[in-house]
Amino acid sequence: MDAIEASGMGQFQAGIPVSPVSVVVPGYKLFSVQAVTIAALFGGPVAGCILMAVNYSRLGKKGLAALTFIVGFAITALAIFIGYAIPANGTYPIALGLLILTRFAATGMQGKAIERHVSLGGGLGSKWLAFGLGVAILCVIFAAVFVPVYMSSAHSKVIIGSKDEVFYTGSATKQDAQVLGDALKKGGYFKDRGTSVFLDKDAHGTTLSMVVREGVWNEPGTLAMEEEAVREVADSVGGLPLHVRLMNAAEEVKKEGVVGRASIDGKDEVFYFGKASETEATALIRALVDEKYFSGRGTSVMLSQDEDGTVMSFVVSDGFWDDAAHVAGFEAVVRAVAPSVGGLPVKLRLVNTALDDKKDVMVN
Q1: CA–CA separation, 208 vs 168, rounded Å?
Q2: What pairs with residue 359 in β-bridges?
Q3: Per-residue pLDDT tens digits for 54-86
Q4: How many CB atoms lie within 10 A of CB 185?
Q5: Contacts of 193 (CB under 8 A, 6+ apart)
């Protein structure tokens, strides 16, 4: 009896009949966590979730299969939308995070089921198939999303006159570009010499990028001049603040700043440029009020900050810049309000009503 039981041929144990245990090998294959990760690496969360949905379907969980696919599709669509709303270098951490999240989800939701499947002799889906799916999804996304966007932006421009042009991207429209171009022409920036300007609108605001000659961005005052041109046409694109960029012919950004307006009474105002902030501009307004320079008469002051330091520009009547007493008075005002913008030294600039620079004085 012992010999028979040891050989597995016995059907009785201690006089009790025992049925032989039969193991049913699964007739289907499941995709491993590694396969899901490979698909997600190339095709994003939706590709990985498609394989997870296939697994759930083969395990008889149709509801979870559908839900997994929907979630994967939604996350991928959201990631693409966010990718257009943030700088390019910010998309890489998001992509890596989504890949890790997809692998973590596959492990937590299906890892044990896959292990049990393999222990019963079940097979695993091909990783090459997972790779192919990922690449296929990538091609679909590229064809359906990136190509149309690229083609749209590549041809989205209006011609002002016969040579000058305004390109528009993001949520900016052809009408926006036309109005901006007309304003630039009226202000004298466009002179039918083939000048290019890029208008972009997105969740972060409005950006005007000006294409300039090679190396001109390093010349003193170039950014300030372009920022002033932008300030003059700001109303045509929705008003301030605006981001300003200087680009070369290859559309590489070489220098950038901000043009904004701050006011606490709706009359007196400080326009801020370059690296100056709205917070600093508002602080300067309050300091100028304390010094009785601002008194609700609609006076304007310009604050600029860049690598060369801080500049305060005051609009004065003709000849004021030649009057030593008046110049000394402005120096005293600058010295008094300098702490509101980071302290001295500050360059005092007196300009005429056309904003032409008439006198510069370094206040220490």
Answers
A1: 10
A2: 350
A3: 999 999 999 999 999 999 999 999 988 887 777
A4: 17
A5: 163, 164
Radius of gyration of the chain (CA): 34
Calculated CA dihedral for residues 255, 261, 264, 265, nearest 10 degrees: 160
For 120, the token pair is: 């019963």
Phi, psi for 78 (deg, rounded to 5): -65, -40
Domain chopping of the chain, boundaries: 29-153, 157-258, 263-363
Q: Angle between the 127-141 and 45-58 helix axes, to the nearest 10 degrees?
A: 130
Segments in the chain below pLDDT 50: 1-12, 14
Question: Is 0.85 topped by the overall pTM?
Answer: no
The 8 Å CB, 24+ separation contacts for 269-272 are 269/298, 269/299, 269/300, 269/301, 270/300, 270/301, 270/302, 270/303, 271/231, 271/240, 271/300, 271/301, 271/302, 271/303, 272/302, 272/303, 272/304, 272/305
Match domain 263-363 to its CATH number in 3.30.1560, 3.90.226, 1.10.10, 3.30.429. 3.30.429
Residues 6+ apart with CB under 8 A from 356: none
- Distance between CA 261 and CA 269 in Å, rounded? 7
- Each residue's pLDDT tens digit, 233-284: 999 999 999 999 999 998 899 999 999 999 999 999 999 999 999 999 999 9
> Regarding the domain delimited by 157-258, which CATH topology (the fold level of the hierarchy) does it fall under?
GMP Synthetase; Chain A, domain 3 (3.30.300)
Beta strands 157-160 and 123-124, pairing class? unpaired
- Residues 19 and 105: their CA atoms lie apart, in Å, by 40
pLDDT score for 161: 94
